[in-house]
Amino acid sequence: MKEKLEELLTMNYDPKRLEICVTDGGSSDNLVEVLKSYAGKFLQIKYAISDRSALPFVIPENNPACDINAQICNVASFPKIVRTDAEVRFRHKDSLKYISDTLSKDRELCIVFHCIHLNKDFVMGEDPEKYRFSYAKMSFHCSCFWKNTFIRNRGVDERFALGFAAEDSYFHRWWRKNRRLIHPPAGWQVLHLWHGKWQSENRLKLKHEYSMPMYLRFLKSNMTPNKGNDNWQRPEMIKEVHIWKS
Question: 3-state SS string over the chain?
């Protein structure tokens, strides 16, 4: 997280125009201390604690989907959202300016950065074919959109949502077909510190037996994912929010 915040300070974009939102689903490190130490460098930092026990269903392990949904819908206060991971790095220092300027032209737009998976040192690993394959599949670790557009279009049943990492390729296919989705210029991919821990047996089983067929039905019928499920935002799971302003 510290390295991610440092990166944002080096972008060609005024950090005092940024609101940093972090939702904690049960970390055990010094996350709060790190966030507090950067409070004066951004417009504000919002730190939300989520309580997954408040949900009427059990979330598969290592699954941030509900935290992400609740954060965007009930914690973020800015209209434009850059949804990314702490282990993701932009390749171009004008990325935030590009995102803001491009979204301003189209409120139905979703900007998706292609991703290159890297090892723990942010370099290609010993198996280059693995990394080329990951890039060819266009994994998505940075999506940018208007908050209200996300709420109107994203809302799938969270009992089966496996989060952006597992399902974005399918949801983005729906968005491309029914809304407007673009990728940044060539060479503007993001770099992602690869980890395989999300591929647990339970998550993969849920993904292949329910989530992927569900998204394919959305693609076939062109239905809005949150149709008939207006309460999917789950505000009740946000236990408390701390705000540190500059």
Answer: CHHHHHHHHCCCCCHHHCEEEEEECCCCCCHHHHHHHCHHHCCEEEEEEECHHHCCCCCCCCCCHHHHHHHHHHCCCCCEEEEECCCEEECCCCHHHHHHHHHCCCCCEEEEEEEEEECCCCCCCCCHHHHHHHHHCCCEEEEEEEHHHHHHHHCCCCCCCCCHHHHHHHHHHHHHHHCEEECCCCCCCEEEECCCCCCCHHHHHHHHHHHHHHHHHHHHHCCCCCCCCCCCCCHHHEEEEEEEEC
